[in-house]
Batch of 2 targets.
Target 1
Amino acid sequence: CTENYAEKYYNRPDVQKALHANVTGIPYKWTACSDVLIKNWKDSEDSMLPTYKELIAAGLRIWVFSGDTDSVVPVTATRFSLSHLNLPIKTKWYPWYSGNQVGGWTEVYEGLTFATVRSAGHEVPLLQPQRAFILFRSFLAGKELPKS
Amino acid sequence: PKQQLLDKVSALPGQPPVRFSQFSGYVTVNEKHGRALFYWLTEASDLPHNKPLLLWLNGGPGCSSVAYGASEEIGPFRINRTGSSLYLNKYSWNAEANLLFLESPAGVGFSYTNTSSDLKDTGDNRTAEDALIFLIRWMARFPQYKYRDFYIAGESYAGHYVPQLAKRIHNYNKAYSRPIINLKGFIVGNAVTDNHYDNIGTVTFWWTHAMISDRTYKSILKYCNFSEEEGQSDKCDEAVNYAINNEFGDIDQYSIYTAACK
């Protein structure tokens, strides 16, 4: 229920003052997710795959990861979508390690790295902070995830 | 830069002492409608001038990067149960980068619009456009981050926001020989990617992780075609709703081995 903690903290006047927030007196409480926006969301692209192709061609470093206990946008959804990019494989599927534990599995394609994060849900850094940190550090360094 | 000083956060209530700097405040992205986006920058805990800049976006759409990214995931602070104080996140990503949390689009968290109809017709396009304008103006306020290695990260519906913003930055940069927004790449987690394939993969996960019965799985495959155009048939909706309401049980769908939050 951790998002309840944020609902308490960020609605405190002293916190808003310290953050220079809510300076115009927004006529509603701060909340983690806006019902109005999600219910009235207009344009939404059906697929991001064409954009991925364009940005891969532009040479950006692109990593996609999946916490493997999420059922809302689960690992099989992402894998099935990415598979339709038909990217050539650079480094074949292998388990990556966090300490002496399997942190997940990964495969490196031309232009994109995919990785799962074991026992992590939708918010990967919330449930597996150390594995998420290793993932991020490898991404920043442009290095493949540790093989041992 | 004068505004930069005004945005400096001396300390948050209940915060432990830290060595890194923090800044937060508003950047106007549309004067006519009065749209302004709220940001919170927590600089790297060591040698911030040598570290890259990372923009973090949560999804929803409509959810706050301050609520999730900053306070539950990658930020340096965690909020305690009563909301009275903060404690340090041992695996904060600000060990490796300067973290910029943006509440986007207007209407999310502290970000606001003075034109209430904006809240009823927001979408991918305007969100990406406003985020690009935010970045350009934010860089003018924080010129020390111009040309710095820049990455974008996010999760969930930010599987749309992140590549869409990356694409706009890439196109914007084409006009400059040395772009100030030095975009190097992006990383996304549990990202909404393709409606058709995501949906098929989602139902597969439900079945392979024993969240639904064979009977339900078969009826979903029979009645749902998952292509956005036609929308879902009543029988498809019925089968999916039966799965969620009668077979999932009282779980946290975002972390299926976790009990639901009461």
Target 2
Amino acid sequence: STIVLVFEAPKGVRPTLDEGYQEKRKGEFKWNIKDGMKVKVGEALGFV
Amino acid sequence: LNSGLKNTKIKWEPIPIALGVSFLGVWQLYRVQRRERHTQIERKENEEAESLGRPKKRERIRPSGPWQVQIMSTLPLKALSRVWGRFNELTIPYYLRVPGFKLYSFIFGVNLSEVAEPDLHVFPNLASFFYRTLKPGARPLDPNPNAVLSPADGKIIQFGIIEHGEVEQVKGVTYSLDALLGSTRPKSRAPSIAGSETKSSEEHIKSGEQDAIRTDEEFANVNGISYTLPNLFSGPESKGGLPTEMPTDQSTAPAPSSEAEVRADLALSDASRPWWAPASTKTPSALYYCVIYLAPGDYHRFHSPVSWVVESRRHFAGELYSVSPYLQRTLPGLFTLNERVVLLGRWRWGFFSYTPVGATNVGSIKINFDRELRTNSLNTDTAADRAAEEAAARGEPYSGFAEATYEGASQVLGGYSLKRGEEMGGFQLG
């Protein structure tokens, strides 16, 4: 059995130059998983 | 037995390959002729039906793929799945239960210390053991309120961002979101994003309302009062104490786009957009997807990954191919062929869909808040055939699914509200 999630999440906006470089773009949805990784209920797949 | 094993003379002989090959050849010839005959009969029936103005029969899906897939497509998978389900509902003798379940756990890696019921004798059969519950606290939820949680125990097969409405199954092989979720907008009581019942996006811009373009956050308008989803979830009156998981830190929120950008985005007509396309223009957003595979030993109940509102469900009565990682790699569009329940709704950031896909061994999908849903049932197949015939009689293409909308306990939300981590349903054997 399989579960497919499809959802809308913020794409994020690039910070302006004066804000400097940030690894995580502002408000962007960021995955917290890798291919083939084992997950359990309640673990974070990603963060907004 | 000892003397038998010692004294019996073992004689090794080559397998008669020619005989085996010729048998397979004859079998294949018979199969091809049988299929040809069936196709001819079906074609004749359809021609007759067409000439008499009657609807045509629903055609069975014949997937393309390697020989393993071709062989699988000839098997009555749904019937096999139902027989498998019945078999697993047979009561196991009392004294065989513990060793049986322990053997199963050893083979498939079940952690018995997590099972809520410590006495394995309580499970009368494999079906009930398979649908076991876990001890409270066995699956703690991630404390970050902005996290999208894993809905089930399993393995991540794919994840990423959806581009041009296509989900990548394997490298270079994609399937469309329309095929997975359905090509039409769901019938919903809640005002549609581009609907005429709500204030248009242009009007919102003119009135200068903050975040007004995100009509997806406005869930209802009762007696002139509009409720926004964050308020509903965090408000003191929220039923059941739904957690406040909406981000409150405004510094993490994306910077607003310029009005010119918003207007440019609005220039795209609603008709030209797919129904699932991100509707927000205020907050740039995208569609993300994630596929989680549940192995036979995994806990087979599934939970809500975020706080969201389920507005409708679509039941696609498809086939029941195995969804093992091997077949996911070899059978293109597997998730668009199999029987599945598509739950459609909204969350903080807009569109949200949740699709449990059935498989040969686990064909029954249960949704806790949907008592009418029956999956992997003969009646469903008959109903799908009837729906296809009715659609053909109306001169419309068959959508391929049966749709229902949720009223839910909360009339304000216009759907069934779920909080993060809440159990939604599960997969059952057969």
